[in-house]
């Protein structure tokens, strides 16, 4: 007899490139305004202020290649990001040890109900209604560090129906991957299975049903996601 009073939720997992293995997900942390040009386009000072994070839910991760246009919005934006997957964690991780906790990297999108996020900002409320809705984080397979190394530079690009909308470089991140891991570990106990979405370059904008999003990061290949 099961000890659970309801059916146990399934484990959320991301495919690992080149294998049948899966990466089980525990938490999803997302850094805000981590590229200067994006901070400017969102109306903020690009100076290096302390980083801030919000969260998506593990089951928001969506490896299907299809993004269902969500309810209660008329302004859904694309944000291309690099996902960082942790194989270990802890508290107060030293900066020079942070990368030792990384399993691998992958492609991701932080889809955003911008109109609902904007209303939340005006009212001083959390962003989750605009960020943490169903299927809001399309993801590609994870590439292990043993295969791709640690990525601190490389072109980041998103196309909509063949036209470039976002472009940048990983080296433009204000807070680098080791800094994000170390900072987060001061406030949370990080653990295996945690995912960090590392921010988006400028050029964010709306999508509509029927659009095809093509995401690419140098060293991590490409993925295609259709808006339905």
UniProtKB/TrEMBL annotation:
**Claim: Membrane is one of the keywords in the record:** no
Q: Does the record carry Hydrolase as a key word?
A: yes
| Name this protein carries in UniProt | FAA hydrolase family protein
Gene Ontology terms, MF aspect: acetylpyruvate hydrolase activity; metal ion binding
> InterPro entries per the record?
Fumarylacetoacetase-like_C (IPR011234), Fumarylacetoacetase_C_sf (IPR036663)
Q: Name one Pfam family in it.
A: FAA_hydrolase
This protein's UniProt keywords: Hydrolase, Metal-binding
Q: Indicate the segments forming the Fumarylacetoacetase-like C-terminal domain, all copies.
A: 28-228
Gene source species: Stappia sediminis
């Amino acid at each position: 007899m099961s000890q659970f009073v309801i059916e146990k939720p399934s484990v959320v997992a991301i495919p690992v490139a080149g294998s049948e293995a899966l990466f089980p997900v525990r938490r999803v942390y997302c850094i805000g305004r981590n590229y200067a040009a994006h901070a400017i386009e969102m109306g903020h000072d690009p100076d290096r202020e302390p980083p801030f994070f919000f969260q998506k839910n593990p089951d928001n991760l969506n490896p299907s290649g299809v993004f269902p246009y969500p309810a209660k919005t008329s302004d859904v934006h694309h944000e291309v990001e690099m996902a960082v997957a942790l194989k270990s964690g802890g508290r107060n991780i030293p900066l020079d040890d942070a990368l030792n906790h990384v399993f691998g990297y992958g492609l991701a999108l932080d889809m955003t109900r911008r109109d609902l996020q904007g209303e939340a900002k005006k009212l001083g409320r959390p962003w989750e209604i605009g960020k943490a809705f169903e299927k809001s984080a399309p993801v590609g397979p994870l590439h292990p560090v043993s295969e791709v190394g640690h990525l601190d530079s490389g072109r980041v690009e998103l196309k909509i129906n063949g036209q470039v909308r976002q472009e940048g470089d990983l080296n433009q991140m204000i807070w680098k991957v080791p800094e994000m891991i170390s900072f987060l570990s001061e406030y949370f106990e990080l653990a295996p299975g945690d995912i960090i979405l590392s921010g988006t370059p400028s050029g964010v904008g709306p999508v509509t049903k029927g659009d095809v999003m093509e995401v690419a990061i140098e060293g991590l290949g490409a993925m295609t996601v259709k808006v339905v």
